[in-house]
Every structure is written in C-alpha cells, then in structure tokens.
Design brief:
Elements (H helix, E strand, L loop, with lengths): L2 E12 L10 E17 L13 E8 L4 E8 L5 E6 L5 H17 L2 H11 L3 E7 L7 H6 L6 H5 L9 E2 L11 E2 L6 H16 L17 H19 L6 H8 L2 E4 L4 H10 L4 H10 L5 E4 L6 E7 L7 H14 L1 H31 L1 H11 L14 H31 L6 H11 L4 E5 L9 E6 L3 H10 L3 E2 L10 E3 L19
Parallel strand pairs: 3-6
Antiparallel strand pairs: 1-2, 1-15, 2-6, 2-9, 3-4, 4-5, 7-8, 9-10, 11-13, 11-14, 12-13
Helix pairs in contact: 1-5, 1-6, 1-9, 5-6, 5-7, 6-7, 8-9, 10-11, 10-13, 11-12, 11-13, 12-13
Length: 507
C-alpha cells in the first residue's frame, strides 16, 4: 500500500526579485534532483482502543538527518501534537499533512469519508528523502581526499547522510544548519509530501509518466499545487512568489506569481476557523498565477556550480532590495523596467531557438555542434548561409540579453547594498562565458554566494566542469528535467531509476 511521489528542485534562470511582483515573469527550470515522499500505513489494521478513534498516529522519518518524529493528528479539527521528536520540528511536513487531510475532508462525500476514516485510523508512516544534489557534500569529498569533481560526487551513496554547517566564527554555541545548494529543497519536499498523501488518501490520481507533455492529470496537479503552495507559505510564515512550488508541481515553466490575497486571507482565517473550512476556501479561491510551458532548447545543457564561499540569506537580500525600492522609487522603477526588458529579450531568443530547432533541425544541429567548439566571438563567422545566420543571431541575442541581465542585477545589488552578483562570482562568470561552447552564465534566483549556473551547447560542458574544478568550484550532477511531480513505482532506495547519480553519464 505504499505510495511514493517525487518532486523536482529548481533553478530560477531569470526573474530574480522581479518575480515577487505581478505581472513580472520568471523562467524557472526544474531539475533531475528530486525529493521523495513515501506514505504507507503505520499499523497492519485499525487500532482497537476507542481512544484512537479521535486521534491518529503519524510517524515522520528523515533517514538522511537520522531523525524520527511522532505526532498525533486530531481527526475532528486536524490539530497536530508532537509526541516525541529527536530534533527540531518540520513545519513544512506538518502543514502538508494537515492540509492534505483537510483537502480530503473538503472534497469527499459521506461514503468516502468513512473509508478515509478507516484508512487514517491505521496511522500514517511518512518517509522523506532528498537527492544528494539538494545538499552540499564539499566537506565530505574533501574529507575523503577526493578532487572537487562531478565524478567524486557520483561516488557518494545515494541519499547520503547530510553534513552540517557547524563553522561558527564567534564560537557561540549555535544550532548547526544543513548545508544546501539552493535548489529549493523545502518546496520540493512539501510538494512531494502533499502529492504522496493526496494520492494515498485517494483525493487525486497522479500519473507515473515522466513526459510532461503526456500528462493527463492536470486537474489533479492543480489541486496538489493549491495545497502545496498554501502549506509552504504558511510554514515559511510569509507568502512568497511561489515559483519554486509551481515548478515542483508542473516542471519547467515561465511563471507569473499569484495574487498574495489568495493565501493571505486563509492565514487570517486559520486563526479563527477550523482547518477544513480554510482549505475549502483555498480550493475555491481565485488562483491567478500565470504558467506557460518553457524549457531549454535542444542540445543545451544546464550546469550548476557550488563555489564553496558560504550561502546567502535570500530573505535578508530581498528585504534590502525592498528597502532600496522605497528609498529611491524613481531609480528602482527604471532599473526594474530595464531588467524586465532584458529578461523578456532572453526569453524571446530562447523561444526562437526552440522554434528553429523544430522547423530546421539539421541546420540548427549543425550550428550548435560547430559553435560548441568555439568561443562566442567566433560564432558569427559560421554564418555561411541565411538559415545558419538566423540560429547564430538567436544564440548571440540570448548571450547579449544575459550580459544585460547580469549588469542590471549588479547595479541593483550595489544600490541596495547587497551582493547580488559578488565580485568573486563576477570573475567566475566572466571566465565561464569566455569558454568554448558556453551560451549563458549567471547567478540563479536572488543571487549571492549560493551557486552559479551555466548553459552550454552540444558536448562542451566538460570545458566548464574542468575549469570550475581548477578554481575550487564543484560542478554538481544537476541537469534540467522538465518533468514536475510524479508517482514513482518503488522506494527510491531499492530502485535504480531514482538516484540522480545513476541516471547521469559522467564523461
């Protein structure tokens, strides 16, 4: 009876900061780094004692953190109590649990409610697992005396135990944090848990298809999206843009955020109304986010690098940018307008390249193959005929748009006093963009020191991973995978399809 669902991590390629405000769009790529949730009954049969009829037992296991938490979920009002926990609470899973069960309450008739009740009285056993790519294993690789290469990452066991950031400059006894790579682990985890629970409770019937164009379960995905988005926002204590949850549900896309009121009203209501009533309002609410299919053009590879210079706090950087917007509205509006135009220009060129790949595959492929071996300043020399010239101009247009985006992000960072593209990242990105076959390079999302990304042509990604390794930058195993949340056929620890490591061929 076990149900296994998985949801992908993300890379926000364009739209950093702007995506927080409608109608600005962002291009978000989903990846092959996936979070898994396994849901099954805790007991073989319903517990006989009558007290259990008002509560159900829930066990949450996170093997990578060596953590187990036990809860009691009240079946009437869905409040949750911690019975015992080896560590800090996981609000993302707790809200995912409450709101998924509430969604069943809100949508079931009396017959289905009785079946649901019987199922819940057998308890819920939830296990969460994240692909290694969500976490930083630099320390582990160095401890093993291995070079900082993708091959070293691939040699680690799947779902390896997670290391902690215990370095503390002032020597205070602070709580260690998990070292992350910025792929949106909380959004992917929340989405996977919601999807697994909703499928297990028979609220939705998710597809096992990994081909996002074949999906027939869009209405079910919409329900997963509403519940996961709400649970994630409430767990965070704020209503974010939601692009990370949207890509975890639907995969790669062009995204425009929903109006914050859709969820903020439920936040207020949650203080006074029972959870099932709040979720009924959420499901009926006017979800006005914009989502258009988007993915990288063929023969292009997404690469992510971890510089190892310590992470950045996205909320504090966003706070600084908002403060700057208030203090200098005229300049900030102008910068945002220009940034929005540059983002649109990049999107337009990538859509054009996707179109050219469909209509003139042979020409497109020959240009990509040729340009993959050359630096971008030599690409225009390959335009020996009009058809090839159109493809090359598309590539150069995309590159110019990315340079414009980076310039404006630096400008915004300087004005707001935060390192959106720090000097060390600028040097790394400039060197990356000068390599053979590199189309784009930038800092994803809100920027800072977390990670860098590159998009390469053809077989040229080795050039990047080698140069990054020489500069102490660890190239991750992450690639773009346009598929969103899906049902898995087995526990990922016993099934080879799941490990991101096993599905990647390292040159």
């Amino acid at each position: 009876m076990a149900v296994v669902a998985s949801a992908p991590g993300k890379v926000l390629m364009t739209g950093g900061y702007l995506i927080l405000e409608r109608p600005n769009a962002g291009l978000v790529l989903s990846t092959n780094a996936r979070f898994y949730a396994i849901v099954k009954p805790l007991y073989d049969e319903t517990k006989p004692d009558t007290w259990a009829w008002s509560w159900t037992d829930v066990k949450l296991t996170s093997p990578q953190l060596s953590r187990v938490a036990l809860y009691k979920l009240a079946l009437k009002n869905l409040t949750i109590q911690t019975v015992s926990s080896s560590e800090t609470r996981n609000p993302f899973v707790e809200y995912a649990l409450q709101y998924s069960v509430a969604a069943a309450y809100a949508t079931f008739d009396q017959n289905k409610m009785e079946l649901l009740h019987k199922l819940l009285l057998r308890g819920l056993d939830i296990t969460i697992l994240g692909s290694n790519d969500f976490y930083s294993y630099r320390n582990e690789i160095e401890r093993r005396g291995l070079p900082l290469t993708p091959e070293s990452l691939a040699s680690l066991p799947p779902f390896a135990s997670i290391t902690f950031n215990t370095d503390d400059g002032n020597g205070a006894n602070c709580k260690p944090e998990v070292a992350k790579t910025g792929l949106g682990s909380s959004a992917a985890m929340t989405t996977a848990v919601v999807a697994a629970l909703l499928h297990y409770l028979d609220v939705v019937k998710l597809s096992t298809s990994k081909d996002h164009q074949e999906r027939k379960d869009i209405e079910d995905l919409d329900l997963v999206h509403k519940i996961a988005q709400t649970a994630h926002c409430i767990a965070q204590g704020k209503v974010g843009s939601g692009f990370d949850v949207s890509s975890a549900v639907y995969g790669s896309q062009r995204y425009v955020r929903f109006s914050p009121e859709v969820i903020s009203s439920s936040q207020d209501a949650a203080k006074a109304l029972p959870i099932p009533e709040v979720i009924t309002d959420i499901l009926k609410g006017k979800w006005d986010h914009g989502r258009t299919e988007f993915s990288l053009p063929p023969l292009m590879t997404l690469l992510l690098g971890e510089p190892g210079t310590g992470g950045s706090s996205t909320p504090s950087m966003v706070g600084a940018v908002k403060k700057w917007q208030k203090s200098d509205p005229q300049k900030s509006l102008d910068t945002w307008r220009r940034l929005s135009e540059a983002n649109s220009a990049l999107e337009m060129q990538l859509n054009l390249l996707n179109k050219l790949a469909k209509e003139q595959w042979d020409t497109y492929k020959s240009v990509i193959d040729r340009c993959s071996m050359l630096r971008s300043d030599k690409w225009i020399e390959q335009a020996s005929e009009p058809n090839k010239e159109v493809v090359i101009k598309g590539l150069l247009g995309a590159k110019d748009a990315m340079l414009g985006i980076r310039y404006l992000m630096r400008l915004m960072g300087e004005a707001a006093g935060v390192p959106i593209e720090p000097e060390s990242q600028t040097q790394l990105l400039d060197a990356t963009m000068n390599l053979e076959g590199v189309l784009l390079a930038g800092v994803p999302g809100a920027g800072g020191f977390d990670a860098v990304f590159a998009v390469t042509l053809g077989d040229s990604s080795n050039n990047v991973t080698k140069m990054w390794s020489s500069l102490d930058v660890l190239a991750l195993l992450v690639k773009e995978d346009p598929c969103g949340v899906s049902l898995e056929s087995a526990d990922p620890r016993t099934h080879e399809i799941t490990s991101a490591v096993s599905s990647i061929h390292i040159e």
